[in-house]
Amino acid sequence: MAVVVLQDKCISCGACVAVCPFGAIEMQDNDKAFITEACTACGACIETCPVSTIVREEEEKTVAMDKTQYKGVWVFIEQAEGHIRGVSHELLGEGRKLADALGQELAGVLIGNNVEGLAKDVFASGADKIYLVEGAEYSHYSTDGFAAALTDLITAYKPGVILMGATNDGRDLGPRVACRVGTGLTADCTNLDIDAETGLVAWTRPAFGGNIMATILCPEHRPQMGTVRPKVFKKPVQDFNRTGEIVRVTSKIKAEDIRTKFIELLQVSAASCNLEEAEVIVSGGRGMCKLENFQLIEELAEVLGGTVGASRAAVDAGWKPALHQVGQTGKTVGPKIYIACGISGAIQHIAGMSSSDIIIAINKDADAPIFKVADYGIVGDVTEVLPVMITEFKKLRQA
């Protein structure tokens, strides 16, 4: 839908120019408003125009795809070193809800080398079927190999919906596959639902820096694809009595088709940064005041067997690397316990940790927004509160 100005009705008031958040409206030489290519079709000008001369113009649709052929909900199963990543279980749980609402089957897509043994976990998390592609060329993730395999599966079996984790692999694979099959992709989703009016998947994701939540539909192309942030959904309770059908698909990819070559896997000391899988996270924000005070955060995390997190303000200040950042522009987490130290609670940070089971906030400002989402709150100076907590937890551990 394009936004246009009906030139013959424009009264040259300029109200639309002032209200456009993107500076996409200009007054022409004839004193008529004109919408430039910078327009995002947000509609702010439509509501402002006093004479209703700005309208949405429906663009001609030329899509010839037979959408009735596309059925079923698929989840791309990420696996590494013989284990399925947590986000795949989360998406199987949510995919089960979508499939049930649509009256369709849920399938997992498992690509790898000697990974059939993981099928029982996929079925236990809710899948009815598994598309299995195995081969030595899939021993390690590669863009060329996995993109070709998934594209071939989509072309052959025509799923209606595909869910992928918004991880390093998912963010690499998703857009490439979407482009090859000629569909769209909604990235970094934080909620999924079925639109009651159209029956389409309603993909919800943050927009404009996390200040609003946008719901996106894909009405004209299939499959409907999206990547979903880890930890925004809970893992389903697995039922290992569940079974299903395994569809073994012969690999068409050859080693020479993959432009990259795996040389060596280097294990870096990133365990302390594995926020997505952590059960306890202790995060520090601007209220820590200086780098040296982050030692208290690290010490408490160590005592609790947890991981160190940080707000964007702390990362921007150089107190912690970006790997530790929690929030809209960092990582979305859902630990059993999240301790926010000196974090005010900006909406962007809360969006990244609000699904935690228990939230404990420490802040000297009693009116800080973080207390509105916290299960327990301590009003006080973190540099005084944290040493006491560390001492008490050490006593408990010794006992």
Automatic annotation (TrEMBL):
CDD domains: ETF_alpha. Transmembrane segments: none annotated. GO terms for biological process: fatty acid beta-oxidation using acyl-CoA dehydrogenase. Keywords: Electron transport, FAD, Flavoprotein, Iron, Iron-sulfur, Metal-binding, Transport. FAD binds at residues 286, 311-312, 325-329, 342-349, 363. Residues 1-30, 31-59 form the 4Fe-4S ferredoxin-type domain. Its cofactor is FAD. GO terms for molecular function: electron transfer activity; flavin adenine dinucleotide binding; iron-sulfur cluster binding; metal ion binding. It comes from Anaerospora hongkongensis. Binds 1 FAD per dimer. Belongs to the ETF alpha-subunit/FixB family. It holds the Pfam family ETF. The keyword Iron applies. This is Electron transfer flavoprotein alpha subunit. InterPro entries: 4Fe4S_Fe-S-bd, 4Fe4S_Fe_S_CS, DHS-like_NAD/FAD-binding_dom, ETF_a/b_N, ETF_a/FixB, ETF_alpha_N, ETF_asu_C, ETF_asu_C_CS.
